[in-house]
Design brief:
It holds the Pfam family PIF1. About 50% of the residues lie in helices and about 15% in strands. The radius of gyration is 29 Å and the shape is globular. The relative contact order is 0.09. The chain is an alpha/beta fold. It has 29 helices and 24 strands. The chain has a six-stranded parallel sheet with strand order 3-2-6-7-1-8, with helices on both faces. The protein folds into four domains: about 200 residues, Rossmann fold (3-Layer(aba) Sandwich), CATH 3.40.50; about 210 residues, no CATH class; about 190 residues; about 100 residues, ATP-dependent DNA helicase RecQ (Arc Repressor Mutant, subunit A, Orthogonal Bundle), CATH 1.10.10.
Amino acid sequence: MSKNDPIQVAAAFVNRTARNIFLTGKAGTGKTTFLRDLAEHTHKNYMIVAPTGIAALNAGGATIHSQFSLPFGTYIPDSNFRMSADQNQGFYTRNILISHHRLSKVKRLVLRSLELLIIDEVSMLRADILDAIDLRLKSAKNIWDQPFGGVQLLFIGDLFQLPPIVKDHERSLMHRYYPNANFFNSLALKQSGLIYVELTKIYRQSDDVFIDVLNNLRQNRITAADREILNSHYLPEEEHPEGVITLATHNRLVDDINQNSLAELEGESHFYRAKIEGDFSESMYPCSREIELKIGAQVMFIRNDSSQDKRYYNGKLAKVVGLEEDEITVVLEGEEDEFLVPKETWENAKYTVEDDSLSPQLDVVGTFQQFPLKLAWAVTIHKSQGLTFDRAVIDVGRAFAPGQVYVALSRLRSLDGLILRTPVPLSAVQSDPDIVHFSEEKRKSANHVQDLKTGQKQYMQLLLNEAFDLMPIARLVGKSIERWPRPLPFDVERVAKWPDEWVSKVGELIQIGARFRSQLNSLLNASEEDQLFERLTKGVEYFESELKTILVSLFGFRADLAAFSGTKKMINELDELDHEFMQKWRRIDEIIHRCEALLAGKVIEKNTKSEKAITNWRIEQITAQKARAAEDKALRTGKRVRSKSKARGGKKVSTFEETFSLYEEGLSIAQIAEKRELTETTIVGHLARGISIERVDFMKLLPPAKAEEILRSYKGQDGLSDWRKDVDNAFSYQELRLALAHIKLKK
């Protein structure tokens, strides 16, 4: 690692420490590229979120409010705060968040598996929302003595760009707890601290004079000479060259320019409507649901070309030269050949943890298909963030937020492409002084070499302590058992005794783990590496054996409970315990691999083989326990045996019919599972049966394009595992299971 390369420094802190990191840098320094590379190579279980729907789409993640089930409004980080009647709307406390906005089981499992949370476009993240995230992570992981429940956070963004939004009625109450709304004022973050890494090499601009002006603008050091340089590019409106995009501060002004310019064109309008499937809220639309165009319209691409040709990019301008019913032909700026614009599909995805994986995976829940174009005589400065232009008319005479002038100017490659619609007023070039102070202080105090050395040792200690600490699991076991009836009302002695056996076994492992952690830390502090790994190897063997015993017992208990009525909630809680024990096993299984790499100064590689072996063992054991329970005569003669149907509206309705009815009401698989208090895997099994008897239409369960793609990928594979391997895990087991039922029906 080169200590002079901030990209390598940031990657080292993410992958070799547990420290929180703020990766920042001017526009065009490579923050987005870093995020994509990190997501592909990090060994940690991670999740990407962003403050807005559009930012989440661009980052390839989910929105903060959706993933953490946060209500819209202000979070009050004070457990003793009592709201007045007029504050009930728009404000929420810890108790309200936990009691009235509970996480679904799927979201809890995702958060429990998390090691690294990546928050993109952090300039828009408010401090109170970050403290609400802190509460969610602590609660999900049952770890209350560490900020963010022990999860590492990576913040990415430029604070000198778009600021967080605070409404007038929120400001006074927020000010009781935060000096301002910027994320770095979060109470949890002040407790944990962060490493500040700034990218300095600019890839967008090469004009040294322009770079100096932008730097001074960021740091509130704008001089009279800088303003003179900028204002020398002012041109009266009548002298503006044709076809140059305008960047303006307000939506209304941008809409007026675009609509008036479109109206001035001769010819009829053509309308192109987006195809929206599944869960895709309006706030996430990447462009208009309906695009109105005429021949001669100036448009801008709003997405990079996903094909191998790479003909266009996000922000590329073009002129419309042909319009048909479902075709748009343009000439790209700087080119002469006509280009037939393809449709693009945006995916709304949510994180989940599949049965065959221990890592969070993005599951597509909705799609938006449209031509990737928008009218582009003008665009708001807000929407221009992340874009690059060779030339632009910039109107910042009415800039209303710190950073707007900087965002607008930094979209350009050089001063040669700058045209000012109005001179830049002095009042418009002020950056937020709190941000300037924070950035300067962090830059001055940064000591990456020492922080990395200390952070690596702390990370290894954390790995050792976390792997062999079963207290969070014990808390989860305790909470679950407290909610169960005692004694358990089942007339099978083995079933009734199981919970007490778990409590005893986990309690024993907690004590052994505490002593073992003390031994490991002593050896680590004494630099006795050979003895450390010798003890570690034996400890891993012992704890893995004990966890396997507990898991087999859990699988057996769950299989037995399935024979009794009134056990859905218990089974759901066992599913969560199953996940938690499996995650613990994975941490223990990987501990030697990770520690060896840390001590050797090597990159910690992903250990997918280990995860696959663990999940395969789990599937085999669950299958065996289900088969055993099915043959167990004691379960068939015990009390409270689960009936095969339940009363609904005075009639006997099978469990399959209940699922079919909810499906016909338009509920998703996740919604049906939550409503029925069953696992999603069980619901998929019901729907697969429904497909086989023609009660459920497979082509309506998934977006049609995706359903067709799955069906085309079937080559007669022997099983779902082989099929999934052949498609590089592009589809989940659930999707393939449903598709296979459809294929068998057609045959």
